[in-house]
């Protein structure tokens, strides 16, 4: 890999969740950090403030296992897709460093998928008696019937040329499918692999 490091010997690294596409953080790496990522399979960065190398999560345990590394067309920026251990990338304890909205509405973007995935996972590990999601976890037949029902309603909305209702039903279908995937331990990387085979 021939990378173009800046005059300071650093290259920006955008870190993204491998399953949801959520941007977790942006950091800097030098050649040694890049070599360590390639050798170990975990993210390593150069701290400009501390002037030292660091492995992400070496103290907190929130390490990032690398799924893929790509460079941009100019080979002066890296995109690293990772599995984020413990679901925490930010030093504030947030899943992502990007949580301050300064314009627009991230709820109208794919950001909702990562947020919804976290809520569904939390319902599984911390059950709440009044939670609809928990009721689905406890009743596999109902969970499966809801997926079939929502798929049928989506198809009927398409047949009726009702875009608003189709969007509503697709949202229901995605949610119920995500609940089933969480319950069965199906990772999106497995789904992406199957999609790649169909490409």
How many helices?
Answer: 6
How would you describe the shape? elongated
Radius of gyration: 20 Å
- Average pLDDT, all residues: 96
- Tally of DSSP β-strands: 6
Helical content band? 40-55%
The stretches of 5 or more residues where confidence is low (pLDDT under 50) are: none
The largest β sheet comes out as: 4 strands, mixed
In the sheet with the most strands, the strands line up as 2-1-6-5
Structural class: alpha+beta
Order of helix and strand elements from N to C terminus: EEHEEEEHHHHH
Short précis:
This protein is an alpha+beta fold and 199 residues long. It has 6 helices and 6 strands; from the N terminus they run ββαββββααααα. The chain has helices at 31-40, 111-125, 132-138, 140-159, 163-184, 188-198; strands at residues 11-17, 23-29, 44-47, 52-55, 64-71, 78-84.
């Amino acid at each position: 890999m021939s990378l173009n490091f800046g005059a300071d010997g650093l290259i920006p690294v955008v870190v993204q969740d491998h399953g949801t596409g959520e941007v977790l953080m942006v950091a800097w790496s030098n050649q040694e950090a890049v070599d360590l990522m390639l050798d170990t399979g975990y993210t390593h960065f150069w701290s400009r403030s501390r002037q030292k190398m660091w492995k992400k999560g070496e103290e907190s345990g929130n390490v990032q296992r690398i799924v893929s590394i790509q460079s941009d067309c100019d080979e002066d920026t890296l995109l690293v897709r990772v599995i984020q251990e413990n679901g925490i990338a930010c030093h504030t304890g947030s899943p992502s460093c990007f949580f301050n909205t300064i314009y627009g509405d991230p709820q109208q973007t794919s950001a909702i998928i990562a947020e919804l995935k976290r809520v569904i996972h939390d319902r599984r590990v911390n059950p709440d008696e009044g939670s609809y999601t928990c009721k689905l976890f406890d009743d596999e037949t109902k969970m499966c019937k809801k997926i079939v029902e929502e798929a049928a309603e989506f198809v009927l909305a398409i047949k009726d040329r009702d875009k608003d209702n189709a969007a509503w039903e697709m949202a229901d279908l995605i949610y119920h499918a995500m609940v089933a995937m969480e319950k069965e331990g199906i990772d999106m990387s497995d789904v992406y692999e199957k999609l790649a085979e169909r490409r």
